[in-house]
Write a structure and sequence with these properties.
Length: about 375
């Protein structure tokens, strides 16, 4: 990290320092949509219009840039807005190679564009670098999209190996690092060009903001096109939401550490439970991506534990309904633990097993979480 400080220090203190006007330790919320010009037409504060930039955005973007070891960051109104903007700067008819197991909504968005003839897409098994290599030499590839760990099955990709293969084919490499966060993995250090976050999740960490982010290794032509696209379409946060995101990131390392510790405990408990048929968590030694995750992830293995109950969707829903500490809700990465029957959410096109429950592990007592799962699994 720059100036010799550890990322935990940057997260706790922020990058911009005390407010230069009132010297408050907490940055103010700059609510203005527009900024005054000097007589010569210049902007003395360096800002012209909040659709392009805002001091509250600046503070949150600067912190995420530092945490990722990146060149620059842009905030967006959601993770989907950030991801979709990447597709929109690709040439018409661009070829994309993406993991078959990935965030379902974005996969559906790519497929919709491909059906409309705006791009071509080939899917490969998540984490299979050999399959990725075969796909990128099959035809010219413009974009390789990676996600690690994947949502909800926790597949892990070797980012350095995948980036090397993609760059050899001349492709742009983007990694969805939502489940890892820079507390665990900094994809740019492994050769990735752009990092995407659904910042609504662990980056914010309090389930009270919808936000997204793109982080770049370089301020190049691709980044310039992305910045122009964001400004033109106005897919930005409000200043208050940016301030909440900044506040959430200050406790990132503490939260990621605790939730990962809890998740490891829960996964180990489920792995030996007689009523559970399968557990997917990168922290388990028998997980296919465990060794890669150990190399790439610093604080732990993330908050997402998925397990199968056997007995189909009915049995999975029965277990979810009996939980009392867990709340049945969508999304992940908050302070509270939630459960979701993922196949029911994704619908008929899902590749998720119908008896799978996805847990987002929060900051509660691991003992309470395990006890709640134990009583819910009783027949």
């Amino acid at each position: 990290m720059s100036r010799g400080r550890r990322p935990e220090t940057w997260a706790a203190q922020g990058v911009t320092g005390p407010d230069p006007t009132m010297h408050g330790l907490v940055p103010p919320i700059h609510a203005s949509a527009s900024y005054a010009r000097d007589p010569d037409g210049s902007y003395p504060g360096g800002h012209s219009y909040t659709r392009d930039q805002n001091p509250t955005f600046d503070a949150a973007e600067a912190l995420l840039t530092e945490l990722e070891g990146a060149a620059e960051t842009m905030l967006f109104s959601s993770g989907m807005a950030a991801a979709a903007t990447v597709l929109d700067v690709l040439p018409e008819g661009a070829r994309i190679v993406a993991p078959r197991e990935m965030y379902f909504t974005f996969r559906r968005w790519i497929e919709t564009r491909a059906t409309a003839g705006r791009c071509r897409v080939d899917f490969v098994s998540a984490g299979d670098v050999d399959a990725l290599a075969a796909a990128v030499v099959d035809a010219k590839t413009d974009l390789v999209w990676l996600e690690t760990p994947t949502n909800p099955l926790g597949h892990v990709t070797d980012l350095a190996a995948a980036s090397e293969v993609a760059h050899a084919a001349g492709a742009l490499v983007v990694a969805d690092s939502t489940l890892a966060t820079p507390a665990n993995t900094r994809p740019i250090e492994h050769g990735v060009d752009l990092v995407m976050h659904s910042a609504s999740k662990q980056l914010n960490g309090h389930a009270d903001v919808v936000a997204g982010a793109l982080v770049t290794a370089r301020k190049d032509d691709v980044w310039a096109r992305l910045r122009h696209e964001r400004g033109q379409r106005g897919a930005i946060l409000g200043p208050f939401e940016a301030w909440l995101l900044l506040r959430g990131m200050k406790t990132l390392f503490v939260r990621v550490g605790r939730s990962s510790e809890n998740a490891q405990s829960v996964a180990e408990m489920l792995a030996v439970h007689p009523a559970v048929t399968s557990v997917s968590y990168p922290g388990l030694p028998d997980h296919a991506g465990h060794e890669t995750a150990r190399r790439q992830m610093d604080v732990g293995f993330g908050p997402i534990v998925s397990f199968q109950t056997g007995g189909g969707a009915a049995r999975a829903r029965e277990v979810a309904a009996k939980l009392r500490v867990f709340t049945d809700a969508t999304s992940l990465g908050g302070t509270e633990s939630v459960v979701e029957h993922r196949a029911g959410v994704e619908g008929p096109a899902t590749a998720v097993p119908e008896d799978l429950l996805r847990l987002s592990i929060g900051l509660e007592s691991a003992i309470d979480l395990a006890a709640d799962l134990g009583q819910a699994l009783e027949r």
